[in-house]
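pasting for the record
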Amino acid sequence: MANPTKCLTSGAHFTTRISPDGVSVRVLTPGGELKNISKEEAIILETLIHNQMELVLRPFFNTQASK
């Protein structure tokens, strides 16, 4: 079970959908925090999100099969 933590993204609205075949997350930023993001920053953000999702989902994958 996750531990409660202090909010670090005040005002952001998170929508998470979990089904047997996938997970999706959408985050709306009410203050337009991402409106001036550069292509390079977007690539870094995408990589960071990918890496964090892998950490969260790792326990649900059979890691023995990949060895």
